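=== RUN LOG ===
request id: a7f3
mode: sequence -> structure
chains: 1
length: 457
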Amino acid sequence: MTARILVVDDIPANVKLLEARLLAEYFEVLTAENGYQCLDICNKVPVDVILLDVMMPGIDGFEVCERLKANPKTAHIPVVMVTALDQSADRVRGLKAGADDFLTKPVNDMQLMARVKSLVRLKMLSDELRLRAETARNIGLDFGHMGMQGHAEEPASVLLVDGRANSQERISRTLKPVAEITSLSDPQAAVFEAAEGSFDLIIVNSNFDDYDPLRLCSQLRSIERSRFIPILLVVDQGGEPMVVRALELGVNDYILRPIEPNELLVRCLTQIRRKRFNDQLRQSVQQTIELAVTDSLTGLNNRRYLDKHLKMLFDRAVARGRPLSICITDIDRFKFVNDTHGHDAGDEVLREFANRVRSTVRGADLACRYGGEEFVVVMPDTTPETAAAVAERLRAVVEMNPFRLPQAGRTINITASLGISSTVWGAESPEQLMKQADRALYDAKHGGRNRVAAAAA
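=== RESULT ===
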């Protein structure tokens, strides 16, 4: 794993020490000697993780972190504060400023590297999601402003796995103002609960007498439903080896006992906000995928999807020696509808036509909007005779009931012409199959419209 790490410290010896450690792990290292240089570098160069000193001339690390998190261009960069300050109040202040961790000098090498690698993995995932979401916005989808703050003002759902009732009660009391807590003392029961429930955060306390808490963390990371839920591990003082291993397993954060309530609260809120932000990104990615293959007006699959999927269905039909038939349908005199009643009325007709296509085709059939007023139905394992029957049923459903125009407060009669083709008639490629169906549609149009024609007829 490689990444670009920015080390910010006004003491050259500290910079050289961290730089040497990071270079030994094959990271690319940038350096800055004050907060202003840090902000300037982050605005000009992509940075994956920032190791930030707190006590610096000019602006201190707390203010630098706040400025980074307030800037949409840099808000997603993980920040680790590396400082001589070791008071709980300092950690809480740093975490509230947006820092991902707060490591005290002298820094344990293994702990530092484990944390850096963990944050690099996290940022790589977030970057991929952000890139895809940006693509969605570039092609016209607007998901609103998605900031790193997420929606943490809404009560979160937290699963607490803790072997002791008294610590369960203390942690639950601390988080009660911001979260609904589900507490369990049985780790295996927690695995099932995580797989069945919907949680924003899982807290695993390492105080089990006869169970390895890292095994639970590993299981949670291996289950699809809980793979992206952040995990916060509660560890005893001196538990650095467990922390290092936990971060390698994908645990997102940790807190040392005795637990300082404010620190616990801030760490939990940070993880919840990040989870909700990434959930928004994933949702936008999913919508992008749907947009790429779905016609926005009718909700049917679009031509892009048809072109890809038809080839797969054609190849499968040939390999299995099974028939594949298609039907192209075109709304008769649709230009007259637009010219007479307006394009809004035309859109209403297209949406209702798509609904009637859906109501007519079978579950295994693929219905797509081909473009304009043309629609295609692909029918796997279907003979020409059955395809003709499906096409005739669709023709009748279109003709039978007038189409309502809600804005105009009236109805109009619509008919459709349909052409069918089939691999049974010798098509040697998806393109040839489509051309045969298109010729059949042409015959139906020129034969008087409102009829079904077959390519072999």
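=== NOTES ===
The first helix runs from residue 12 to 24.
The radius of gyration is 30 Å.
=== END ===
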